[in-house]
Amino acid sequence: MKTQPPSRVAYDRDLNSAQLEAVTVPGGPILVIAGAGSGKTRTIVYRVAWLVDSGVDPESILLLTFTRKAAEEMLSRAAQLLDGRVTRVAGGTFHSVGNLLLRKYAALLGFGATFSIMDQGDSLEAIDHMRKTLSPPIADMKGFPKARTIAETISRVRGSGQSVQEVLRRRYPHLEGYAAEIERIGAMYEEYKKSNQLMDYDDLLGNTVRLLEEFEPVRREISSRWQHILVDEYQDTNRLQANIVRLLAHLHDNVMVVGDDSQSIYSFRGADFTNIVEFPTLFPGARIIKLEENYRSTLPILNVTNSIIERAATGYPKRLFTRKAGGLLPLAVRAETERDQSRFVVECVRELHAHRVPLNEVAVLFRAGFHSFDLEGELTRNGIPFVKYGGFKFLESQHIKDVLAHLKVLNNPRDRLSWIRILKLLPGVGLKTALGLAGRIVEGGMPDAASALVPAGKKFSAHFSELHSLITELRNHAGPISEKVERVNRYYFPFLKEAYDNYPKRMRDLENLADLTVPYRSLHRFLDDMALEPPDDEMTESPSKNNSLVLSTIHSSKGLEWHTVIIIWATEGRIPSPMALESEDDLEEERRILYVATTRAKQNLVVIAPVSVLDRRVGRVPTTLSRFFQEVPQDHFRTASA
DNA sequence: TCTTCTGAATTTTTT
DNA sequence: ATTCAGAAGA
Length: 642
Description:
Blueprint: H1 11-14, H2 17-24, E1 30-34, H3 40-53, E2 61-65, H4 68-81, E3 90-93, H5 94-105, E4 116-117, H6 120-132, H7 147-160, H8 164-171, H9 179-195, E5 198-199, H10 201-214, H11 216-225, E6 228-231, H12 239-248, E7 255-259, H13 274-282, E8 287-291, H14 299-309, E9 331-335, H15 338-354, E10 362-366, H16 373-381, E11 386-389, H17 398-411, H18 416-424, H19 431-444, H20 449-453, H21 461-476, H22 481-499, H23 503-516, H24 523-532, E12 549-553, H25 554-557, E13 562-567, H26 584-598, E14 601-610, E15 612-615, E16 619-622, H27 627-630, E17 638-641
Helix pairs in contact: 2-3, 3-4, 5-10, 6-7, 6-9, 7-8, 10-12, 14-26, 15-16, 17-18, 17-22, 18-19, 22-23
This protein binds a DNA duplex through residues 65-70, 93-96, 119-120, 141-142, 146, 148, 201-202, 204-205, 233, 236, 265-266, 268-269, 367-371, 390-393, 396-398, 427-433, 531-534, 553-556, 558-559, 574, 577-580, 589, 593, 616.
């Protein structure tokens, strides 16, 4: 070990006592319960720096986060503290680390190192095809679960270890009768992935667990390579991820997990906050450190957030405090209609702007993407620029998936799914035709694509020969990947123009896609990264966002903070969502969602609830204020109406 | 029989 | 914005 220059980091000056304790624990299992705004990121950053400062080899540290961006940000801040000495720290998501290990040891599990990664859309499509081609076919598709429901069920079975029957009973009691069919679809899906060398997101985790569980030498090698493991957002891990942590650390138990059970809002994706509750059981002797001093919000705001979360049924009890004095009481607004709500937001924003609060320091938060439709119109009419977070992603849009499909078949000619997508673009080809043709192409192999296509149908021959020459050209093309994308874009343009009115915007997206390939030398790596670490939306959006109002789903707002937070639609039927009313656990999660929303505010919190809502069928219906706000003492708010 | 068209409906979505 | 179901068209 090299001798390091003496540290210039003033740990005891920069950190409070709880943070300092967490940062300077020598090793062993540590659970940090980090309340909202309590300096969680700072603690992780200083922990990395402290480890390196005390002589730990940066290469033996592993930082697991939920996004690549989070890992990069923390590591660069740690590097800043230490003048660049942490550059070799390994950081990334559970999935990317799993991918890394699996590429190396795939053979042990019967996979080739060149397996392809399916993103969520890919799994959904595969499952939809299976749903439609189940044999014997479903007599009556009416009432049969949608692909999304089936995919979620299968994923949950995988992530929780429960049976299909059990998961259905908990999540979809009305679908329990379809358990047998869902199991059959699940088996088909597994078979499909195996025979086509595919892994979905769950496989990247599940197969990593298998690898580490079943192959002792691999387990030892990996566990000695990473001597210190740090995990962020631990409340959002599922059981497979908790297993991975357990296995990675089995030789040394040097694990620090950081999280807040009160901010667990991703259970619909399989996250299980009991992981954080059970951490001390999984790692006996774990030290538990609570960060409860809040550096973000004023006291009146904290009074509201504490009041919301102290009624939560489970979790680590905690009460955030601040040393900051003063601050305005949060404002509660009853608006007459949705339109009045939107106008009130506009007024608010104008007034804040007049008081020199920059637009990008104001956020409007809501439960679901479509809740902001009316507001978006009102903002546009008033010339207020905004960016919207949440909802659909760049890579999930159809035109991007269409173009990527053409690249995927170059990389993996057996990629049936992509063939189907490619073929369905052609006029006159629907699912049935595409399924048949794709089967012939996959079985015949790429060189025979032509022979599968040409006799396929005389009436399609013009289109097929064009597709065929595209594929041939791309296969023989040796230049940069961006040229391949551009070639596909030229081929795809007529379809794009035909299908979408906003084709110029979509074409620009496709040009961006070509630019994204520039750093890559292998198509394979590019496609992996597109599945594992999708590009930031910044790549695709205008740079004007630094002076735009922020509109965001509450889920996408997690981890962020603003001077002023305006929560709209604080009514029953929106928060909590009607889908959550059936189950006590779901309702508790809705409470945490609102907790996340309110804890984003630094100076101002505004909560708006329209008095009535327009129902398509019955007209105007009165609403009730969200139950979670009704529970907050009246004197915690100022009130206004609009 | 298969594809395309139309109108209706929609929870959240780090991998 | 996308997806789904049912109807109409090829």
